[in-house]
């Protein structure tokens, strides 16, 4: 009894002297635990208001702030975490699972589930994002009047962002989208969705500069990483992809007026059973777009349908482009140390625009086989050089 009393007194003293005394000690930041604002870790109670309340306090804090989500399942409807905030150091520390509504119609037409907009200095550490997308995928496969779905985690018009150790499961649409951002680090992320889930790209980057994606594993039904117009200084390293459609620059050139893609490095990646390995893809229609200064280095292909591919004749459903040629100019693309197995005979395919041929394509040490034989290469409107060991032999 006496011990308890002195303990309580001591705690009262500490709280008096250090009002921000938290789990980690008397630090100079505030922690907002969503449980304190009414969140329930039961997977059924709607915790949206509690999350918004914690964010509003963190965003309004003049000192660095942490939003804490403890273990458990927290049901959340769509949330926009909107800046500007009063500080530039907000951490979301997530030990639990954030769960989207199981009825896909709730988010289906909203476009985003968890969206950060106009924020600076936000980090998301850990946690599982469960997008509950399977119902929408089934609807899309049966093909009748389905909503397009929501991206699970989006960052828009933001800067100085870290996404570390997050696991995204079964998004309705894209898993993670980085749009209009500057200086974003994605590290140790896991993405998992069925190999036949529609439009569930792992990480989509567009209109952004200085994005780095490291040490991540992505298995999904569409591109593992897709890179849209207006991306520059993108670095992707140590990523495992599969199932999925590979790492794709594009689709580019959908719009007539479009910014280009520049300075992309894709390094030390493994593709397992994917539809593509490293791909550049553009619509077959006029555009101001371009892709240049691209390096694909140290890639391992395991049973990949199209290990190396440039496709400038993308025209889904043959609508709005038949007979047109791509305006996207592709130049200065290097493939260095790419080896492994192709699941089809043609392992290297450069199918470029007749109006704007691909230029300065470089193959250096490429070895791809098909059924224990050298695979084949196919080129149209592609110009460049080959050096080192090259198999299949170059058609440039
Ligand atoms: C290319 O991008 C990398 C980051 O991915 C950056 O470090 C480098 O400075 C950029 N190069 C140029 C010429 O901008």
From TrEMBL:
Broad class of the protein's primary localization: secreted
Any one GO MF annotation of this record: polygalacturonase activity
Listed GO biological process terms: carbohydrate metabolic process; cell wall organization
InterPro entries: Glyco_hydro_28, PbH1, Pectin_lyas_fold, Pectin_lyase_fold/virulence
Keywords: Cell wall, Cell wall biogenesis/degradation, Glycosidase, Hydrolase, Secreted, Signal
SUPFAM superfamilies reported in the protein's UniProt record: Pectin lyase-like
Superkingdom of the organism of origin: Eukaryota
Residues annotated as catalytic: 245
Transmembrane segments: none
Listed name of the protein: Polygalacturonase
Record lineage: Eukaryota, Viridiplantae, Streptophyta, Embryophyta, Tracheophyta
């Amino acid at each position: 009894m006496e011990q308890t009393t002195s303990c309580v007194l001591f705690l009262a003293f500490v709280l008096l002297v250090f009002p921000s005394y938290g789990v980690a000690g008397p630090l100079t930041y505030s922690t907002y635990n969503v449980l304190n604002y009414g969140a329930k870790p039961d997977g059924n109670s709607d915790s949206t208001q509690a999350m918004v309340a914690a964010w509003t306090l963190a965003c309004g804090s003049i000192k660095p702030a942490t939003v804490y989500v403890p273990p458990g399942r927290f049901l959340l409807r769509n949330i926009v975490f909107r800046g500007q905030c009063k500080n530039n150091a907000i951490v979301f520390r997530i030990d639990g699972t954030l769960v989207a509504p199981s009825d896909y119609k709730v988010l289906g037409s909203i476009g985003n589930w968890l969206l950060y907009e106009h924020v600076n200095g936000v980090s998301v550490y850990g946690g599982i994002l469960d997008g509950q997308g399977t119902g929408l995928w089934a609807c899309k496969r049966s093909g009748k009047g389905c909503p397009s779905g929501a991206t699970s985690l989006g960052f828009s018009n933001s800067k100085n962002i870290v996404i570390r150790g997050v696991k995204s499961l079964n998004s309705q649409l894209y898993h993670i989208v980085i749009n209009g951002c500057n200086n974003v680090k994605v590290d140790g992320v896991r993405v998992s969705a069925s190999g036949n889930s529609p439009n569930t790209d792992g990480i989509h980057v567009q209109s952004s500069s200085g994005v780095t994606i490291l040490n991540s594993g992505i298995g999904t039904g569409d591109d593992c990483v897709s890179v849209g117009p207006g991306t520059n200084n993108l670095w992707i390293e140590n990523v495992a992809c599969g199932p999925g459609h590979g790492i794709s620059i594009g689709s580019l050139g959908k719009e007539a007026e479009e910014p280009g893609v520049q300075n992309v490095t894709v390094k030390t990646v493994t593709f397992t059973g994917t539809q593509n390995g490293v791909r550049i893809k553009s619509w077959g229609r006029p555009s101001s777009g371009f892709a240049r200064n691209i390096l694909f280095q140290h890639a391992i292909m395991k049973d990949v349908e199209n290990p190396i591919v440039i496709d400038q004749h993308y025209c889904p459903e043959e609508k709005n482009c038949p007979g047109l040629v791509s305006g996207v100019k592709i130049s200065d693309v290097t493939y260095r140390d790419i080896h492994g197995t192709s699941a089809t005979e043609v392992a290297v395919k450069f199918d470029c625009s007749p109006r704007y041929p691909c230029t300065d394509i470089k193959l250096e040490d490429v070895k791809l086989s098909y059924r224990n034989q050298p695979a084949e290469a196919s080129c149209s409107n592609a110009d460049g050089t080959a050096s080192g060991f090259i198999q299949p032999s170059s058609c440039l």
